[in-house]
Amino acid sequence: MWPKQRKKVSTILRFESAKQKWWNKPLIIFKGRVLPAELAILSLELGPGESGAWMNSRGIVSGVVDLQSSSGISKSALSTKRVSLPGFVSEMLFQIFETANLKRGCPDLVIWDEQARRVRFVEVKCPHWDKPTREQEMFFKAAGDAGIDSKIIEWEFATPHN
Questions:
Q1: What is the pTM of this model?
Q2: What is the C-alpha separation between 102 and 94, in angstroms, rounded?
Q3: DSSP 85
């Protein structure tokens, strides 16, 4: 079951298109930078004392915190800056995957407060082309059963995008 917050979405975040893609992902302009919407939303979602990462791969030990121009390569080449997740975050992800008998389905964003040892999840969706997968629904159910807060944030381009 998809989180109840899905039905409560009343505002969709809007971003200007950078009119380019990275790994087939449309990029936006956020605070003068070209980024995937996931990294912009991560920046907006972090509260006091929180850290977080975009889980753009299936691993549970590191995540992306920034996208930057690769040095020595053409200006349009971008690379990810990754960080290691704290052990308690990786362990929580492992437990949810095990409980739900999944290998994928992790939400886009994992946000944590290391001092409070609290984790929350944010799934980022563009409702015009992005739908939840069965694995994501199962992951959210297992996370909810474990008492972990989660929500969905929807976004779209501010102006029509071709």
A1: 0.88
A2: 10
A3: P
